[in-house]
# Entry
Amino acid sequence: MASGKGLHIRLSALLLSLVVAAGVCAIRVGVAEAAVKTKKHFTSQESLRRRDKYRNYRLRSPAYRRWKVNKDRISKLKKSSFWNRRPYQFSTPLAVEGKLFVGCDAGVFYAYQIPRGKKLWKYRTEGPIQSQAEYFGGMVFVGDAKGKIYALGADDGELRWSARLDTEILAAPLAVGGRLYVSTMSGRLYALDAVSGAEYWHTEPDDRELGFSVRGGAAPAYRGGLIYQGTSTGNLRAIRESDGSIAWVRKLGNIRQMIYDVDSTPLMYGGNVYAASADGALYALSPADGTVQWVSEAGGVDDVHVHHGRLYSSGGGKLFSLDPLTGQVYWEQDLDRPAISSPALGEGFVAVSSTTDKIFLVESDTGDLCYDRYIRKGSLGDPIVHDGRVYVLSNTGRLYSFKVGRRVKKGKKRKKDEVEAEVKVEVEDEVEAKDGAEAPAVDEAPQGKE
# Structure
């Protein structure tokens, strides 16, 4: 009896010791997990000890502190397919008269009110939209990848007319003098009446039936009765607007390279026409006969733009600023991306987007990177700048707006009475100085006897 009671006491003690040991282990594990878990928020003093988890703003360029950027997402455009896990958008927005026009790969063309982002109307096209639109005479013109051009009312989105062309339209149309010039993937250039859509003439493909384009097509440019067009065969040609005949052709692309087509829109500036080829060259040519003035290794498939007397181009993931007269490179910014968009120019900054993940802002004078922001999947289209805002359509179909401005340094506020007193004193001093300068010299007359 006593031995049984002693066994029961020993078992109870063993069980109690096991429970205590388990509790101690649980407490130690909890303490260890609490030590490993990172707080979501740290004070400024604590952050100094965690440089690997927080950005060190002291090492960033001073240009980041000179600019202030606010992001707004205007809208999400229709997806081409729910199952598409690798979406893409080649369309570039167009901002004019308080409206933003943009199409998407799902074949829907939208009009938004800016900067509020209110959707005004939408129109469904037959094929995907992979180019920028054009505005003229209260109408907006846009082409799709099935070779159809549409003329829509800018206010209501009603169809005015449409025309079927030969192949895909991957470049923005050009409206000049009541005519609409449209370049297609076949290399043909069509001249249509902007009001009715009637065809005046069209050119034949350059050298071969179908060309190859890296990301789209070269939109035409106009000056002095000539239409300038780049082709997939690496040529830049000038076409007479009267009958569509060829004025001159200049070979730009190096045929020894794998890709040498001219996909950039020609730029008319000063006394030259500027065009870039896909093999990485940028040319300045005479508009009259196509004579090459200079060549620089600052080109690519993207468009060239000019702002405040400087050329801006991109190619191979790099952004360039050049002298339009000599081709001298002022600065070069390598954004460490395989491909970037055409530059969009604002007051004091240049905006570009990568094809994979980000949008960048670069100071136009120095080339310093002053802002970068992640946008999902990047953008295969080009950003635009309008009224201090950057608009870009991401590959996921999200339309973004970035308001850009310089930061204002907050100085010491002065009292209103002090400022008014200083202004009053300055005005009085100016008046006295003016009166003293205008008063004629009077000689004091001698006093005579009465």
